[in-house]
Amino acid sequence: MHATTAELSRRAEHAAADYLLQRYSGPGNPMGTQVLRIGDMFATKVPFLKQNALMNSVHHLDDPAQLPEILAFYAATEQPCWIVALPYTPFGVTDVLPELGFRVERYSSMMVAATLPEPLVGTAGVVEIGRTDLDAFLDTINLGFDTNPAMLDDLRRNQSFWSDMPDWHLFLARVDGAPAGAAVLSIHGDVGYLAAGAVLPPYRGRGLQSALIAARLARARARGCTVACGAAAWGSQSQRNQQRAGLAIAHVKTIWTNCPVASNERTR
To answer: Which of 20, 87, 128, 205, by CA, is between 20 and 30 Å from 163?
Structure first.
């Protein structure tokens, strides 16, 4: 029996949320991530990075009665949070969010392939790396996300466990021997999640993102995955790259926040 779109959506979201939980509170918890769990709902917060939407986010919120405890969790460290609302999130949750000072900040597409597609592009120059190349990988992926170079030393320490995660696979793309792009595949049962992926600015537009997607799909297939998924900003180049690779939009999720609006955003 084929899984329904709703079933695939839920499996993909659980994989994505599980990856984020592993990423921000992995072995040794180097970032000092605090986690609140109430039933299936979990919320993460990193007090020294209060403005980071991914690190300070709420997942699987289905009961508005949980909101007071969630808000108190973040208020204890005087920081905002971001709530992920899915198509099947009860209206009781989203109806009350504006009353609590939340607004919609952005939309994100969940991409899914019910069967792993055959690669449409080559993966030349993309290799799976281990601890030996971890620093080059981390610098590449962080700079690819336009991170301030001054933060690289701290990020290397905070992300030092990435190569030790048994169900994570790290890929580095090189051009003429130089690191140019990097990406993560995480495995969740039979679901392969195309997690973080980025290309350095000088190398964008050369097909490296597509090659990194293809390499991860091939590895997911080798691990026995039957479903592939990935997240992307709605309408973004990342979404289009995943669509070209054979993934389709399963749903669009809404990201709500009570983070104050920056002054330059108010005029947009």
So the answer is: 205
